[in-house]
TrEMBL record:
Residues 89-129 form the B box-type domain. Residues 16-57 form the RING-type domain. The gene is LOC100737224. This is Tripartite motif-containing protein 64-like. Signal peptide: none annotated. It comes from Sus scrofa (Pig). GO terms for biological process: innate immune response; regulation of gene expression.
Amino acid sequence: MDSEGFMHTFQDELKCSICMNYFIDPVTTDCGHSFCRPCLYLCWEEEQAPKSCPECRAVSEKPDLKTNIVLKRLASLARQARASHSSSSEEQLCGTHREKGLFCEADKTLLCGPCSEGPEHAAHSHSPIQWAAEERREMLLKRMDSLWKMTQEMQNNRNQETKKIRSLEDYVTLRKVMIKLQYQRMHLFLREEEQFHLEALEKEAKETGRDLKESVFRMTQQKETLKEMYSMLTELCRSPDTELLQDLENVLEMTELVQMQNPQPVNPELTCWPVTGMLDMLNNFRAENVLSQKMSIHSVRLSEDEASVVFEDDPQGASSEPPSEERFVAWGAQAFTSGRHYWEVDVTRSSNWILGVCKDIWTSDTDISVDSEDAFLLFSMKNDQYTLSTNSPPLIQYVQRPLGRVGVFLDYDNGTVSFYDVCKGSLIYSFLPSSFSSPLRPFLCLRSPG
């Protein structure tokens, strides 16, 4: 093989088998084949899992691939050599002096040596066109990396919104059952109010579901726009140097506008409608001072998931500030074995709390472990946002969080535990009827300002 044939073969090895152009940001899969990162990502985006090599179909175990630096440098040199010797290099000659072109960094224009030394450009910075183009390709690759990460994040957000739709539909179905059971305890004249409540829930659920579906649609559109912009940048990377340099600014402005138009996730929240006369009825079964025993604690957890600590003191003792909150639990000295009992708990000054009833409490020093199968609890947690949930089974409550007093109603004989927003006179959640066979004790755990 002569030197020219060898050089041609060598240059072919620096080309991506997908786009048939010199590599841009090459990566190597587990099987040893190399491709442009944009080509491989876009190829994998169209495939179903698992991700496989486009050439030999071997499954790639590590989708997060690193840039092949040596291959990237060789491809860059080959691209520059092609630009220097190709017939199209006439584009890089000065029309006046017929000399090889330079790129003026200040004016973003092509010049020759004599023109660059003229009074108009002498004070500017100049570089060979091939060098300038490679620098701009690196800029594009960084922007493409940002776009791709946003594309993947958008896909994850879209999946979460889709899950919310299914979860909300199931929750609405369950909530309809709870509302019907609640109204069955009321007098017959409340049937009209019950119908209004159900219709309002249905309407609000449809509106919230529509918002979630629109959110999914917007995220799908944004993902496609991001992919289109990513493909556009990929094509611009492959374009001739002069076209790349002339179009770069406009394309970068377009990508910045697209990246600023990110849709925000929807936080579904249903209205708790008041039930006429409900609190008056519950107060007929009011029990006073049910939470008579109290102790300070360090941590509280559910025993079936020891890794899920509800809240606890700083384990490292990293904060030098004095503690601003007191963490404590309280439970009833009396355990109920029959009848109906109603009590209220003030959670106005606490963001994190747990309340309800449990069969028993085990304490070890200042750590509390509650078996979730033996408890009927309502949780309020504040991390990035407030979360209201129940256990047995774990269930997010898509209703507004109570800000004042929470009522707890234990109907032991009928096997139900219900929670109420006292300020609104509305139902928060009611566990479906079950059979109680053990004594149930009131329980409260919260953070309160010290």
